[in-house]
Each structure stands twice: as C-alpha cells, then as structure tokens.
Design brief:
- The complex is a heterodimer.
- By secondary structure, chain A is α+β, with helices and mostly antiparallel strands.
- Chain A contains 27 helices and 28 strands.
- Among the domains of chain A are: 168 residues, Alpha-Beta Plaits, CATH 3.30.70.100; 89 residues, Calcium-transporting ATPase, cytoplasmic transduction domain A, CATH 2.70.150; 163 residues, 3-Layer(aba) Sandwich (Rossmann fold); 111 residues, Calcium-transporting ATPase, cytoplasmic domain N.
- In chain A, strands 16-28-27-26-17-24-25 form a seven-stranded mixed sheet, sandwiched between helices. A six-stranded antiparallel sheet of chain A has the order 8-7-9-15-10-13, with no helix packed on it.
- Chain B is an all-alpha fold.
- Chain B has a domain of 39 residues.
- The longest helix of chain B has 26 residues.
- The chains are: A alpha+beta, B mainly alpha.
Chain lengths: 880, 59
Amino acid sequence: MPAARADLCPVTPPVHTFRPVAEPHFPSADFRADHADADAASQAQGPQHDPMACAHCGDPCTPRPVRRNGENFCCSGCATAYQLIHELGMEDFYALNEAPGAPVRDGGDWSWMDEPVLQERLIRFRKGNRAVVQFRLPSIHCSSCVWLLERMPEYVDGVIDARVHYGRRELELHFDPEAVRLSAVATQLQRLGYAPAINRADLDGESEGQLRSRARDPLLKRLGVAGFCAGNIMLLSFPDYFHWDPVTAGPMYGLVNVLKVVLALPVLFYSGSIYWRAAWLSLKTRVPSVDIPIALGMLALAVRSFYDIVSASGEGYLDSLAGLVFLLLVGRWFQDRVHGFLSFRRDYRSFFPASVLKEEGETRRAVLPDDLEPGDVILVRPGEVVPADADLLEEARVDYHFLTGESEPIPMASGERCYGGGRILGSPARLKVAKRLGTSYLASLWERDALREEAQTGSAGQETSGPSGRASAQPSARPKLRQVTDRLSRWFTPLVVVLALASAALWWSAGPAKALEVLTAVLIVACPCGLALAAPFALGHALRYFDRAGLHLRDTAAIERLAALNALVFDKTGTLTAPGAGELRCTPVGGELSADERRAVAAVAAGSAHPVSRRLAEAWGGDLVPLARALRETPGAGIEGSVSQAEDPASAWTVRIGSAAYCGVAEADTQPGTALCINGRLRAWVHVQPTMRPGSAEALQALGEAPRAGGRPRYRMELLSGDQDQDRQRLEGLFPATAELHFGVSPHDKLARIEALRAEGHTVGMFGDGLNDAGALAASDAGLAVADDLSGYFPASDGVLEASALGRLPQLLQYARAMRGAVWVAIGVSFAYNIVGLSFAVSGRLTPLVAAILMPISSLTVAGLGLLLAALRSRHLHKN
Amino acid sequence: MSVIVLLIMASIAVAAGFLGLFLWAVKDGQYDDDTTPAIRILFDDTGGDRRRSAGRKRS
C-alpha cells in the first residue's frame, strides 16, 4: 500500500490499459452514517459476504487479496488490524456490523508526541496523573468504531477513559502520562485504522466544531429560560383572556400581575439581550437589519405592558412579549446548524504539519514548525507538507497542486527553492529552511485574505472603483449580498415608524393616553416576528436537504447568495478534474506501437522520475520489463536508454523520451506532449490528460445553457486554471462558446479576476479546491470548496461540495433559487398577517387577547410554510 | 381563593425545578453530542464497571 491515500499514489495498474491510475476513492471518510444514500453506495461497493471484499474494511480486494487466517484482505494493514483486534479479544467488533473496519493507512511516526513542548500543546487538561487529549479520527464511521475505541482502557494500559464524539469524529482520551507514552497510544490507534489527524492548527486550541458547540450552549440556555417564562406568563394570562374582572378578583389580580412582571424580566434582559445588542450594533454601523424593528417591537411591548400594569389600566402584553422572544430563539436555534467535523474557516495552519523533524547534529528532534529558523535542516517524509520555504538538499518530487493548481508533481533538483505548502512525494527529502513560517509564500497569501475579510466585515457598503491590482490589500469591490430579511428592513423600519406616528397623530384628538396606546399598538403588531422567522425555518430546513445532496453550507445566508449568482468561475485541477488521476493519451506516428516497443519505452521510462515517464512505465511496463542500459537523463529535456531484445540479444533499440528538440523532431511536425523516439525514428506523442470528475461535463453544459430556448444563458462561465493550457481544447468543448478560459493563472491573479468580475456587476460563484483558490473563494460572493475527502484539507469557504456531487450542481443552484422564492412567499404571508394586525392597531382595537392570538398564529404559519416549501422544493435536487 | 395562590406558587416552583435541571444539563454538555449516546446504548455492556462517567470535566 502506498504511503498515504491522500497523495493518490497509483496502485498497480492492470497491464496494457491506458488508464494507469485507479479512480481515487475514500471509503472511510465519507458520510456513511449521516446519509442514507452514501450508506447504500458503500454497501454496493462491498456487498455482503462478497469473498472479494476485505474482511476488515469491506473494500474490494484489488488487484489481488492479501490472504491470512483464511480471510481476504485488501491490504496487509487491514490484515494486521484484523489479527490485532482478535488478539485483543475484541472480535465482537466484527459482529456489530458487516466489515466495519477502517482501511489502515500506512506509516506515521508519532514519536513527536512525546516531545514535552509539543505534548503540552496537545494536552487539553491535566490533573494529577490524568491527562486529557482530543484526537480527530476521520476514519470513525460506524457503531463498531465507537465500540472498539471506547474499549481502549481494556486493551491499552494507561488509558483511563476513552469517549467518542461521533458527530465531530473525535476521541477524548484520558490517560496516565506516567503509565503510557502518548505516541504508543497514537500508534495503536493507527494500527487499528484510526490514525489521528493532527495539523498545525490543532495545536492552537479547540476545533471549529468544539467552538460551534460551545457557542450553542448560551443559545440553548436562553431558549430554555424564554420557554419557561413564556409558558408561565401565558398560564397567568388565561384569566385575562376570559375577561377577568379586576374588581371581583381583588388582591389576586395584583399578585398575578407582579408575577408576570417578574417572569418577564429574564425574558427581556437575558433571553432577549441578543436582540438589544444586535439592534444597537446595527444602529451604530448604520447597516439596516431586521433586529431593529424586532427591538423596537420588544421595547414597545415592554413599555406598554409595564405602564398598563403599574397604572392599573390593563393587563399588558407580557405574554406576547415572552412568546415572541421564545419563537425568535427557536428560529435561531433551528437555523444554527452544528456541522460536526466540517470546518469552514481554515487558514494555512490547517494545511501545515503539527511537527517537523529538525536535524541537530547527529540526532533529529521534533519541533513546532513555528520554531524553525533560517538555516535549520529539516527532514520531510513522503506525503508530508514542507512547512516553510526551504532549499532542497537532495532531489525530490514535489506536489504543488494545492498551492498553485498545477496538476503534475514537479521533479526538483538539489538546491532548488521549495515553497512551504508543497507536498513531498516518493522518498524523504532533506531541506534547509530559508524563511520563517510566517513569512513564507503561503502565509503571505493568507495574510492578505485575512486582511480582506476584516475590511469587508468592518466596513460594509464601502465602495472602491475597479479591480484592484496585484498584491494590494484593498477591500473588495462591493460588499457581499445581504440577506433578504435585512435588506427588507431598510424600508420596513422607517415605514413602521412613520405609520405609528401617523396613527398616533390621528388619535391625538382622543387624548394623549389613547394616542400613546395606538402608537405602541402599531409598533407591537408590526414587530416582524414572521419576517424574522421566514428565512431561518425555510433555509434552515433547506440546509439539511443540501447536506443530503452533498453540499455542506456554512450558514443559511450562503443559500441566498448561491441563488443570486450570475457568474460561475471554476478552477480546473482538483475541481473539474480529479487530482492525480489521469489518462495517458498516445498519438502514434506511423502505425500503432507493438508490444515490444511499448515494453522498451517502459523500460527506459522507469529510469526517470518525471510524471509522464512514471505513467508510461506503469501503463506499458507489465510484469516483464526488459532491462534498460546506458540510461542518461538530461534534466528538463528527456531521457535516453538502450533496450536489448529478448529474441536477439545482440540488437538493441535506442529509446528517447522527451521534448521535441531533445528527440530531434522538426518544428513543423511538433505536436503537444512528449515525443517517443525509437532508433531515431519518431513513433508517438504522449501526454497525460487529467480525468474529468464524473458528471462535471454534463453539469457544465447544463449550466451554460439558456433557461429558455433563445434566451440568454443564466450564467457567465469562466475557467481559472493554474495549469498550462495543454487541456484547452477539451475544456473549450465543455464550456459554452462565450466562456473565457484562462490558463497559467497565479493565486493572486485568480483573486484579481474575481474582483474584476464583481466590479463589472456580476455576482460571482467560485468553485475551487486548493490553497491557490483560497483568495478567490474568499473574494467571491459565494465560494464553494470542492473536496474528495471531507476530512482532508479544503480552504476556507462558504460551503463544501463533495466531489461526487459536482454533477448535481445545476440542481443544487436551482434549489437555492427555489428556496429564495420560498422565503419571499413566507415573507408575503407574514406581511398579510401584519396588515390584518395593523388594521386592528390603527383603529385602536388591539387588545392583549387579539395580540396573543395573532402573533403566535402568524409565526407558526410562517415557520410551517417555510418547512413545507423546503421539503416540497427539494424535488429539484433529484430531477434529471 | 388563597388555595389558588398556593397552586400558582407550587406550579411555578416545579417548573423552575425543571428549568434548573435543563440549564444544568446544558452546562454539563449533554446537548453537546446527540449521536454517540444513541450508538452507545446499542452495545451489550459486558465490561461491567467499565463505564466511568467521572472526570468528564470540560476544561
């Protein structure tokens, strides 16, 4: 098994096919338990009792199973895990679910965890001989995993307690640092198939999931208090609803009113405090929001009720006040999803390793990447990320796909500068650090985006002209689209205030007391409870349908922004094409290549680390590769070697693989790709064509079409690729004719292009996958990260689109538009209620009873309508 | 009439008790994880005293 699945090292290819790399799949990391359809898919992958399915993880055993103890396994890691679990007496693990294991990834050196400085960062809590760490284990996927992991105290000495948080794929481990080394625990986890995922950001405190959970607690408490108070106030208000006579009730009347006031205070000052604060912030920053009319309504309700009760002129509207706050909080709670292990605010630290091996004389020591100084020599193992800009001390292959968008790993010579963020492939590499972590190329890209986000949230509405130039930290061309409800309140709030004052003026003749009564009545009834609930319920429910369809959005505001898009910009590598995977395209010159010729080419290609050579060697090599002699590689040009023939050892073929110039091809005959020459004769041109993700071609076509025949297409489409344009022809066929395709675009240029589009007035959606898209994703109106593996790295974004759902993109965007319509419908209904209520208020007949009936009914209808529409419209997701 | 006062007080006291219980549960982190307990309950606990709930302090 190759070092790690994440670097997509090819598995042994079937002989004589042009498809050397198997489609990557991540059976362990998808949402098996969360989504019924994913569940079905994984079962289809490993049907029950399939003799060719791995007994440990259920993956198909290709190309040939590892046999041990009479069972088939997909790899030796799984076989070892299976044996280990039996040795530990944990065989019930396999009884709970069919092939419940997680595929065992190779390698990983956890000894850095024992380095005191680093361990201190990992430990969350320590008391006496009990220390607590929290590991993210992305391969947790079923109930068997929970069972096995929570039994760790039984089979790992020194582990006191183990608790799984399934939603966040986390394991909380209580252990005794005296009795067991943390690295030993991690090694055991890895051998069982649950390698901890730890990156640099994990050492800086709590995960986003933990923070989100924590942020939810105060809301739950506010909700509980509001519910308690609202229920009791309503109970105490029942006599009022049946026209209780204050005279006959006597002192009881006073007592009930005092109780109601006492119960209303926590609602007003604890549960409702978020609305006071939000309204104040909104006033201060002069950004209209729905919180202002809500706070106004709450204020009117409270003042009027207290006045009524103190002056003994009525019973007040405290039941409506408490009910209002309660329902608003329910809406907030409903909308506020906890996304478990998904993280939407990643910066470059999440992409960096938690530790790096630094050479100190003869020994190596694990240190924090932040502590690296220029001149330090570090060792980076295959699959690991180079933490800071550094110079290579030996040859290496570096995968820059996340950093620059280039699809092919680059072979680099000793002495070349390797940028922080590049991933070392193949064999370990020693590097000499050139820059500190914070000043590396990658970090500089990030600093700029961080600046941008600050500028945007700090000064919404600020206008700057035109696209910004390279590497200048200007705020975005215009602020992102605000939510419908907030935009509505821009005219709603003044309208309500004017209406209230006008009605009060009309009633002035009936006395100031009556005028004041009408004034507050209008403010009360206009309080946009329905308006504030329409979006949370409709869109909050829609989030769940999006999740199920493979699009995980950060919040409900992202749905509204998706609905408003009129320009779509795509990255190529990793977004439209699968990274690492590719087909070898061969254009023979002068007849097909014979099997002998192919083998000869493969033999020479095997001597080079160049990606095309590697593909050639894999695809054409087969089992019997003849030996190539006199291999000579000219870096940047090609490789030459001679291969003797089996039937006639005396005759040898000279094979040259390389650029047209290297092979001596005349300029007129040159075609794109790498030339293959045998005995000085040009035989073929080859190039590696990245595999398109399934469904992406259809999706692009559907998105490029006009919604109606003869109409204008809905979207302006564009491609921004960091790659060179060898793929241009194919992509031109997939994009509509009007689309612009840009190749060789740097991360900064991508960002600038998005800004230019926005400055032209487009609402831009960006689809990307790597760090090179991070700036563009942040600058766009709606940035979606495309990810194969939800537990892997993806840049900060408004949402994560599972790569397998890319083909559903037209339907997803259509659903977003449908939901925007649904919000308008719900808002319309809430306005209808408001108009009925206002007619009561303006005519001075808004009794507490009318308010108590009207407000909950309007809120519940609007909420129910939102849920219903979200469910009904979700059929868009399955159409076609 | 005074019996109503008593009843109101009793009912609010009981409700306040439940509110207190709810607030405690939130603070204890019981709403933190809504999937794992549902999975955990499926296992036949043969380990006996294994399940220790002590020390679940949130730092």
